[in-house]
Amino acid sequence: MYMNLSYKKYLFGLVVVSAVLAAVSCSKSDQEVTDPAKATTEAKAPEEKVLNIYNWSDYIAPDTIANFEKETGIKVQYDVFDSNEILHAKLIAKNTGYDIVVPTSNWAKQQLDGGLFQKLDKGKLTNWKNLDEGILKQMAAFDPGNQYLVDWMWSYNTVGINVDKVKAALGDTPLPENAWDLVFNPTYTSKLKSCGITFLDTPTDVFQAALHYLGRPVYTGTPEDYQAAFDLLMKVRPDIKKFNSGGQIDDLASGNTCVAYGWAGDFNLARKRSIENKTEQNIEALVPKTGGILFMDVMAIPADAKHPDNAHTFINYIMRPEVTAAITNEVTYANPNKAATEFVDPEIKNNKSIYLSDEDIAKLVPPGVEDAQTKRNMTRLYTKFKSGV
Ligand code: N2P
Prior knowledge:
This protein is an alpha/beta fold. 48% of the residues lie in helices and 13% in strands. It has helices at residues 2-34, 36-42, 64-72, 84-93, 105-113, 133-140, 163-170, 181-184, 186-192, 203-213, 223-236, 248-253, 264-276, 308-318, 321-331, 346-349, 358-363, 372-387; strands at residues 50-56, 75-81, 100-101, 150-162, 197-199, 242-243, 259-263, 283-285, 293-299. Helix 1 packs across helix 2, helix 10 (203-213) packs across helix 18 and helix 11 (223-236) packs parallel to helix 18 (372-387).
């Protein structure tokens, strides 16, 4: 009901916006008739056939870019990163040279408020209708009216394990009821350190999980909450072997580590890679009973992008059901496209740690946003935590 209502409002908004745009373009063309010389100088030169994209590593199908280039003649430069902090530093320095970037929901809001992105021209996004209204509604919490951002994929922060190695390391101790104990409770971490525990290498994600485990606000905590999270983290610090983000997939797939705090999608990808590489590691993304932390990685066009038309063409291409389903099938992340579900491999569609049950979705911590001051505090505490002193 609510969704229908907001959808209607959205349609109404579109009608109003289109009417205003029509009025603007009408007055412009009037001007062009009376002043042809001005019209010539004002005519927009077509964009060069180039598009620069900055996305997370291991987040695309092998032929996504090649097919786009073949179809459009636009040459894509595709670069990857592993942390929001790195992307954010580039964005605030301006002139990234990128036409599309893919920050996570809790960073995108701050960047949007800071004027770092340009509004989408929905008139160019004819495949918008394929998007899932439920996800658009979640996104409206950090992008009111869904004006700037399009979800690339979504997942949640959780614990990933190598089931056999973890059982062996725990011995007589059964797996805990609460999956988060595996990374935050020294009773477990002290045993699991023998087979290798890894954490994401990023302050925001690490503090979010620690706060959630403590039952404290995940995005809006006080300095005292962050201190409590820090104290918790320091207790398990001696048991953590490594901090890495993009590297968790291969570490798990090769059996180098047995427990990881990270992204559910990457744990499923590690499982897939282990099967492909015949390393036979039994990897699972756990769905904590107390909930994981939902995130959305979203496409945005930087305010100073040089190829915004090409960026729109690419976003519209990604919103095609077959294109986004092929990405999901490759990287084991859920996509925001309701029309794509029929093209998703049954094995992925039925995997309850990728496409969660409604009950598990309801338990997820919804996306939120830490303010800039809190992010700075986290970075300071995280540096201390990582160095272990
Ligand atoms: C993809 C990583 C997803 C990043 N490999 C989480 N924001």
